[in-house]
What does this fold into?
Amino acid sequence: MSMTVSDEPTCRERECSHRAPGVGGDFYSGASYVQSLQRLRASAAADFSARVSSFFWSDARHIVVWLCHDCAAELNSLRPAA
It folds into this structure.
């Protein structure tokens, strides 16, 4: 049996709790999301991060985060996912 390992990067998706049919939003870079959280006070960052499916921050470069427009407006300097 032969196994092949792909060198292609894979992205995983996370989303805010507001994702539902008809709700507008966009995908953002996981690294950008984490950087935006780090600019908040600890309690605000903890409250906000509870809205999004969890992931290890060390994996942020492999994550894209979907945020509704309202959640995205609360964070500064978000970069759209490529």
Q: What stands out?
A: The radius of gyration is 14 Å. The chain has three helices and three strands.
